[in-house]
From TrEMBL:
Its EC number is 2.7.7.27. InterPro entries: ADP-Glc_PPase, GlgDAde_trans, GlmU/GlgC-like_hexapep, NTP_transferase_dom, Nucleotide-diphossugar_trans, Trimer_LpxA-like_sf. The keyword Kinase does not apply. It holds the Pfam family NTP_transferase. One of its GO terms (biological process) is glycogen biosynthetic process. Residues 17-158 form the Nucleotidyl transferase domain. The gene is glgD. The keyword Disulfide bond does not apply. Belongs to the bacterial/plant glucose-1-phosphate adenylyltransferase family. CDD domains: ADP_Glucose_PP, LbH_G1P_AT_C. GO terms for molecular function: glucose-1-phosphate adenylyltransferase activity. Residues 282-348 form the Glucose-1-phosphate adenylyltransferase/Bifunctional protein GlmU-like C-terminal hexapeptide domain. This is Glucose-1-phosphate adenylyltransferase.
Length: 367
């Protein structure tokens, strides 16, 4: 859709996933046995056929750049438009911009050269299957300056505590934006607005010494803008802590949860040509997600297993997440554990965490 320009802004996403973000930004964290968190928002933009997508990153982005490459997996390796990875590069000695406004100020050419008239702005922590074309139509119908996307949550969880809330009237207009923890309307850090208005707001905020686009251009100036609210009703998960990552990983073992996320929703990721997983005679696998390229000779129960994992004979993996190319030796046992990439667990080693506070082993550890 040539009318929409995608902006994925990772500047405000802090390293809340502890060991999982020691060596990568949150958007590059593996999820659901074969994907990264960035894959879901990028796939949403791919399905809407956005001509260009700009990815704004500040730190720990080597892993993310390796994963995305030239954007081919998301059909974004094009002669015109496509995926633009825009790391920070402040070469202007007169630049006074701060926060994520620095990204926009130092990449004005990206916005001005794009033919799109509207911007879709999103982060990566809210996993969803939104239809951006439907959002665009709603925005035009409302005649708003800005349309914010929210999800009404029936049962609030700890991961919702840091999220902003939207006060919405019966006509779908935003009355207030606040942090009241008991309010159910969770702002999904996603909005759509006209590109020229976006750039005007960026320039205004920089001129007045502001730092962050949403807080200073939208939240603080809501009385000067017509702000509409779009209620999203599909699959939704917030990944902003180790606990929320683990809980939502385990939820995907439920057939209904998995279907809500992946049924009729094309989610793309980096293509890796690996052989199917081999299950040896001693293997016993139940209620688990297992990616390709694995060799399993032990027991796996209620777990998420990524590509290239080796689980030796006699080993037991229960209620755990095991990321790419881990090796679990004979008779080792893990329960309520997250193993990051390339972890090697020695023979007869036992690791047991709590279902609400899983035991996390950092990337490339040997135990």
């Amino acid at each position: 859709m040539k009318q929409l320009l995608g902006v994925i802004n990772l500047d405000h996403e802090l390293d809340h996933l502890n060991e999982l973000t020691y060596f990568r930004c949150g958007a590059a964290v593996p999820f659901a046995s074969r994907y990264r968190l960035i894959d879901f928002v990028l796939s949403n933009m791919m399905r809407a056929e956005l001509e260009s997508v700009g990815l704004f990153v500040r730190r720990k982005y080597r892993s993310l750049m390796d994963h995305l490459g030239d954007g081919k997996s998301w059909d974004m390796n094009r002669k015109h438009g496509g995926l633009f990875i825009l790391p920070p590069d402040w070469n202007d000695p007169t630049d006074t911009s701060l926060g994520d406004l620095q990204h926009f100020h130092n990449n004005l050419d990206f916005f001005k050269r794009a033919s799109a008239k509207y911007i879709v702005h999103s982060g990566s922590q809210h996993i969803n299957t939104i239809d951006f074309q439907e959002l665009y139509s709603y925005h035009l119908e409302k005649g708003a300056d800005v349309t914010l996307v929210y999800k009404k949550i029936d049962h609030l969880e700890p991961e919702h505590d840091p999220c902003l809330r939207l006060e919405v009237d019966e006509d779908g207009n935003v009355l207030n934006i606040h942090h009241e923890k008991n309010h159910p309307n969770i702002y999904m850090e996603m909005l759509i607005m006209e590109k020229e208005l976006f750039l005007e707001q960026v320039e205004y905020c920089i001129a007045h010494g502001e730092s962050y686009f949403f807080r200073d251009a939208i939240q603080k100036r809501r009385d000067k803008l017509k702000i509409a609210a779009y209620e999203y009703t599909g699959y939704h998960a917030v990944i902003n802590s180790v606990a929320s990552y683990y809980k939502n990983s385990m939820k995907l073992l439920n057939h209904d949860e998995y279907t809500d996320l992946f049924h009729d929703n094309q989610v793309q990721t980096k293509i890796k040509y690996e052989a199917p997983t081999r299950y040896l005679e001693s293997a016993n696998v139940s209620n688990s997600l297992v990616a390709n390229g694995c060799i399993i000779a032990g027991t796996v129960e209620n777990s998420v297993i990524f590509r290239g994992v080796q689980i030796r004979k006699g080993a037991r993996v229960v209620n755990s997440v095991v990321m790419q190319k881990c090796v679990i030796e004979e008779d080792a046992v893990i329960e309520n554990v997250i193993l990051d990439k390339d972890v090697q667990l020695s023979r007869e080693r036992i690791l047991v965490g709590d279902s609400k506070r899983p035991f996390v082993i950092a990337k490339s550890s040997k135990m």
